[in-house]
Amino acid sequence: MRRLALVAALLLPVAGHAGEAAPVTDDPVLEERVMRLSHDLRCLVCQNQSIAESNAPLAVDLRNQVREQFQAGKDEAAVVDYLVARYGDFVLYLPPFKGTTLLLWLGPGLLLVAGAGWLAWRLRSRVRETPHALSAEEHARAAALLDGTAKPSRESRL
Amino acid sequence: MKAKFLIPLFIFLALAGFLGYGLKLNPREVPSPLIGKAAPAFRVPQLQAEDKTISPEDMKGRVWLLNVWASWCVSCRYEHPVLVQLARNSPVPIVGLNYKEVRGDGALDAKAVDPATELATARQRARQWLVEHGGDPYMASAVDLDGRVGIDYGVYGVPETFLIDQQGVIRYKHIGPITPESLRDVLLPKIAELQRAS
What we know:
The complex is a heterodimer of chains A (about 160) and B (about 200). Chain A is mainly α and about 160 residues long. Chain A folds into 2 domains: about 20-95, Cytochrome C biogenesis protein (Helicase, Ruva Protein, domain 3, Orthogonal Bundle); about 95-130. Chain A contains 6 helices and no strands. Chain A has helices spanning about 1-15, 30-40, 55-70, 75-85, 100-130, 135-145. The longest helix of chain A has 27 residues, at about 100-130. The radius of gyration of chain A is 32 Å and the shape is elongated. Chain A starts with a helix and ends in an 11-residue tail after the last helix. Chain B has helices spanning about 5-25, 75-90, 115-130, 150, 180-195; strands spanning about 45, 55, 65-70, 95-100, 140-145, 160-165, 170-175. In chain B, the strands form 2 sheets. Chain B has a 5-stranded mixed β-sheet with strand order 5-4-3-6-7. In chain B, strands 1-2 form a two-stranded antiparallel sheet. The interface between A and B is medium-sized, with 15 and 19 residues. Chain A: Pfam families: CcmH (PF03918). Chain A: This is Cytochrome c-type biogenesis protein. Chain A: Keywords: Cytochrome c-type biogenesis, Heme, Iron, Membrane, Metal-binding, Signal, Transmembrane, Transmembrane helix. Chain A: Belongs to the CcmH/CycL/Ccl2/NrfF family.
């Protein structure tokens, strides 16, 4: 009984998985276009959801706007321009490549190049380091240590 | 180099600095692309004067505020006394944008709203709210039933306030309720600056 309850509890999130908003018109092609574009647009109310996933009133309004503009014959780029003019680049999940987003786009690449360069430099300088040769006395001590015949040393080295 | 062991400390401090700065940023405050652009045009019915409409055109030549509000907006209750006080001192006219008064109310079923009576319901609700919350600070309120004007202004939360200059250009957008502090420190200086410019 307990196990059954546990299984039911574990399945609960699956049952509760949020779907997309139900289509409004009965034109599947139009609805497809609306949903496809809506997935790339951020809802400004619940900022980590797209307007396709969110059911915030603003997301519903914006989906309706997208639909209306498609019906009026506008294409994807025109609808995106319309929304960006009102809400800024923030509505786009894929920010445009321009001056203010330069670091955003190139930053990870720069970090990678810098990190790889530093690693290469470190590895190369490590190869150049000549291994420290042991003196005869040190050799003898090392051998004694390995044999297990060494006395506890008072010296701090080794 | 002796101080090499300090390098991770400096990296940590730099990172902590960035993160600390990031903590102070408010992700809810999305900069508006409309700053410096002409206020989008609209002409919608007024709240109080039933036979009149209002448009940004009517405000040309004056510095004014466009304040987005609704009776269902909780933060508006905190903002309202500030607006009433501001209207009393009247440095600038405040135009209200009553945003989705009926449909925006989460307590109502938006689909059950009857379009034929929506305007009348909105007027009745909004007026009653104004009476209950200390009076009407607005020179006039534009009734934006379906939120279309709101979309043109990039409204994504209520309240929001736009500062518009004599030429009808949006100069500043305040997101969230206006507090006595933000009024004194930000809004009033900006208003004074614009009025001097005329």
